[in-house]
Every structure is written in C-alpha cells, then in structure tokens.
Predict the 3D structure of the following.
Amino acid sequence: MELLIAFVKALVALLILLQVTVLLLWIERKGSALIQDRVGANRANIFGGLLPFNLGIVNTLMADPLKLFHKEDVVPKDADHFLHWLAPFVAVLPLFVTFAVIPFGDVLVLGDTVISLVAAELDVGLLFVLGMVSLGVYGVIIGGWASNSRYAFLGGVRGSAQMISYEIGMGLALVSVILTYGTLDLQEIARAQGQLMWGLIPAWGVFYQPLALVLFFIAGIAESKRAPFDLPEAESELVAGFYTEYSGSKQSMFMMSDFIEVAIVAALVTTLFFGGWQVPYLYRDGFHLPGGFFLGVPSLVVTVLQVLAFLVKLFIFCWLQILVRWTFPRMRYDQLMNLGWKRLLPIGLANVAVSAVLVLALEGWTVA
Amino acid sequence: MTNPYIALLISFVLCALVAGIMMGASWLLGPKRASKAKLEIFETGNPPLGSIRGIRFPVKFYLVAILFVVFDVEVVFMYPWAVVFRRLGWIGLAEMAAFVVVLGVGLAYVWRVGALEWD
C-alpha cells in the first residue's frame, strides 16, 4: 500500500513537471511573440481548418514533440556513439528526479491515511536538489565532447565553465536560506512559512532573505543557460553550441532540459522564498484571518487550494524568467565571469555573514 | 511512513523509463537514411576541419575549474554548519569566520593576480 502511494506520488510529480514543461514551450512561443510584436505559433489545425478558432496551443503541446520524435536520429560519423547517446540522458534524468523532492502541497487526508504531498520527503532535500542540478553539467560537457565538432566542443567547454561558476553563487545564496530555517527539508521549510509576522504578514522567506532571492534567481537563470547567459549555445557564433550535432528526440531532450530547469528554478524560488504551497491565512482546518475571523474549509478543498497556489506561484516565476530571456541582450563572456566571481561570490559571502550575525543577535527574528 | 529513499528510488526508475522511452522514440519512429553528407559534422557549410581529439583550447577554462573546486568545497562545508548553526552559537560563527577568512585571503589573492580576468 505504501509502495503504491509512493509510486502514485512519483508519477504525479513527474506528470506535473512534464505538463509544466510542455506548457512552458507554448508560453515561451506566445510570450516572445508578444514581447517582440510578432504573431507566434498559430498554424496548427485539425479537421482541415473547420474550427472557427486557432489551435496554436495544440501546435506546441502535441504537434511539436510528435514532429521531433519522427525525425531521423543522425549521429555524425566520427562521433562517439555511446557518449552521444548518454549526454541527453544525463542532461535530463537528474532534472526529472529533482522534482521528486519539491513539495507541491501540504497533506492529503484520505480516511485514516495522511499523505504528505511530496514524492520523496528527504530530510536533506535542498542538498539533493543542489547535487542533482549540478549533475546537469555532465550532459553539457559530454554532449560537446561526443559530437567531435569544434562548435559543439566550444559550447560544451563554455557551458561547463559557466555552470560551475554560478553554482557557487547559487550555493552561497542557499546557505543563508538554511541559516534562516535551520533545516534542509523542503517540506519543513514550506510549513515554516505558514506562520505570521506580527500576526499579519505571512512569514515568507522573501521578507527574511531578500538579497538571497536576488542572488539565487540570477544564479538560477545562469545555471539554466538561458539568455542573457546563453553563451554555451550562442547561435550567432556557435550554431547551437553543445547540441549542434543532435537531432530528433535526443535534441528534444536538450530542449526539454532547458525548460525543466526553468520550472525547477521557479519551484525552488516558490518553495524557499514565497511560501511554497502556502495560501496566506489558510491552515488545515480553514482560513484564520487576522482579527479573529475564521472560515472553516473541508480538508480536501484546502489541499486543492494549496496545490493550485503552488502551481500559480510556479507559473509566475516561470513567466518572470521568460520575460528576462526576451528582454535582455546576451552578455559577453568576460562580463559573465565577472558577474559570477566578482559580484555573486563576495555578495553571497557577505549575505551569509550578515544573516549569521543577525540570527544569533535577534533570536526571535528567525522563522524556526 | 516508508523510507523516503525507497520513494526516491521508485521516482528514479520511473524517470529513467520515461526519459529512455522519449529518447528511443526517434530511433523507433524516425527514418534511417544515412548519406555521406548527412553524417558529416556541421561547420556552417565549410568542409569540416577534422577531429577535435587532441586539439588545444584556452587554459583559462582549467583555471575556472580549479577555482571552482576550492570555493565549492567551502560552500559544501557551510551546509552542515548552517543546519546546526543555532546550537553552535557564537563559537560556531567564530570558527566558520576563521575558515572563511582564510579562503577570503585566497580569493583576494587570485583576484589581485588577475586569475579572475577574462580578456
């Protein structure tokens, strides 16, 4: 029974991730079209155009993946076949698994069973996330090496240098978050944010660690290798960077890992800084509004509201990353390295120092 | 409550299956018509310059990798410290400060000698 529950939860987490990923593809097409004042995906039709409305969303939800899966899988003749196959797999698998430790709701009560809505409730969740996200660098470097092409190789080397540089900034931003909560368990972090500050404002992480939020968000965008940090695949100089020599579904794996990273950064920002699945003033038995008002809500409705709140927050931060991608021009490589090593690293260290002193000086200041 | 690592293993197997199926889709569904020109490396239409095995690339990238090892280990040391920080109190803060100051001197040094410059 418990194994069945674990399986269903793993499946639900994976399905949420896949749906978010595919939806993001569509949102990005339409969003970039909106920002750049062009039309965007609008040519998908079934039944020969008999429907009165446009089916652009079908284009990216169905037609796009189907088209990619029906393309020929070309491996260049000098490429290392095994590594060429391994790279997209290594790029996408750790990212899939990462989502298993992110809580998408509090608890689901079914009769006597109380199910915590996270696929695998690890007490070292945050450490696991960091480890899995940094495994993504292997997909980039192996893909660049296996193709045996100069463009791919340069893209791979650039990508790995960039990803490891920003990992430090990301790790430091998270250290100050852990100082605030005193735990690595993401579900516990989300629960801690259900408290209220002065009985009025939800005690979300953003109010305790605003600087860490900025650092983490910048480092997260750089880790996902998207504009303005898309040097590894800078199409005007490196064709497509480390996946120049990929086609068909292997190439779609790299594309997908891009969007999964967006979703994971958004999920982490939500969980660590914006209360995760918390709806302000909503607790397991209903709304406790400030001023003593109480509105009872059935347990199942509470769960549904919380999952919805998580998804809404998730999409807000995904959209923010898409906005950033289509608004800022690409950085130069020296600017990229300067930002990583000379800005994020010292500021992150200073933030950790200040947080540590403040945690000790004002004991009542922290969440936990 | 089951061991969360069993749940993680289930999730891992499930994800590997889904990823494997999606990657195999092209091999199953796609056409297989290889030709000499198609199997060549794409170098913007020029004849390819040949293999990359053993070519040289800027040593800067190695430097970044070594700096990463130094500072990432520092960050990893901070994780367990941050979790038990409240119990360690001011003494724990002082100990970590001593550790970070040593690495801070290192950072100041590599900054000063220009190892962080990318020309």
The two ends of chain B are 56 Å apart (CA to CA). The mean pLDDT of chain B is 82.
